[in-house]
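To whoever is covering the structure queue this week,

Two jobs came back overnight. Logging them here so there's a record in the thread.

Job A:
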Amino acid sequence: MSYGDEMNARAKSAERRAEIVRAALEVIAERGYRGASLAAVAERVGLTQQGLLHYFPTKDALLVAVLEERDQWDAVPDSQWRIDLLASLVEYNAMRPAIIQTFSALLGESVTEGHPARDYFTARYARVRASMAGVLRAEYGDRLPNGLTPERTAPLLVAVMDGLQYQWLLDPESVDMPGAFRDFLALLGET
């Protein structure tokens, strides 16, 4: 196989993997992780289950790829996050309900013992809380106007963001996710 042929094959393999990850996102959003099957994902992309296993040897490997892909969409270096960017992220999330539904379904399922995404979400939340404490410290210093430290406020900030997503997914006509998040920022002292 020539170098050009090899590069072409790698590019096609990467495209196929990306197609499978997108299909897995859809299936997980519809059925949850436990209800999603490799067969359903394979069918969506026109493969047999064995064909899918060529790209992702286990369901857990596919789940990790889905989570990593989702994180890439929101990737901003920690040093560049600001309060106003968080509000923009909430607005952006309101435009992509399927992705938020998938993330929320996986997050909800991951609290059970033995779930393959449990370690991922545990580590992710530790990183996110630390990042949010940094954002709050950069904005307010060692104490917010409400008297709390950035470290004490960071879990509340993350909880509001995730909790609003669940409420919005359940009743998007009644929950203005971006507006409610801006209201929370006002409580922090951001106007």
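Job B:
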Amino acid sequence: MLESLGALADPPWIHLIVGLCVLLDVFVPFLPSGVLLIAAATAAGTRTATVGVPSMSGGSAVADLFALALCAATASVLGDLAAYRVAWRGGDRFDRAIARSRRLAAAQERLGTALTRGGGIVVVLARFAPAGRSVVSLGAGVAHRTVREFLPWSMLAGVAWAAYSVTLGYFGGHLLGATWFSTAVSVFALFAAGSAALYVMRRPERAAAHSG
């Protein structure tokens, strides 16, 4: 798969493609930004595994990995802020849409409580959970949480997610080569982290259900 990407798999094009995909997937959660980021990191990991093979951009593959992670993290934060501002301005409409879903309403309530108490780690966990980033960013905007409450956690979430994804892809490519198997193993590890994050986020719901 990675070999068939051709020139698009090399910097700077892959950085632009990954950045655009990450930026937009807060609005279109089914975009495969995580898979694409891992595939790009796998390609860079494969280059470092081959001694003496320089990066196509003229620098080292390690520098490419750092640039890739920085691009993904920056795009993640910018996408979060865009969704946050859109939801802030269209609060009533988004609020009605969220109110129709018990799950989204509960997530919005948990988010508000967590941010107010300084427990914005839920923002970081949500970045790994399926569609969690969208719920958190839109929910923060609808609830009119301040930028000071939301932005630092969004930045931490973007850096953590990008670093984890790039690390997975790098070691997959470095150890197993640019193959479907190495990419699949890395993607599985990413989804496993997402499932774990979702479980942690839902624990308060289960505790409340049992106590009730």
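Note for Job B: The radius of gyration is 18 Å.

Please reply-all if you pick these up so we don't duplicate work.
Q.
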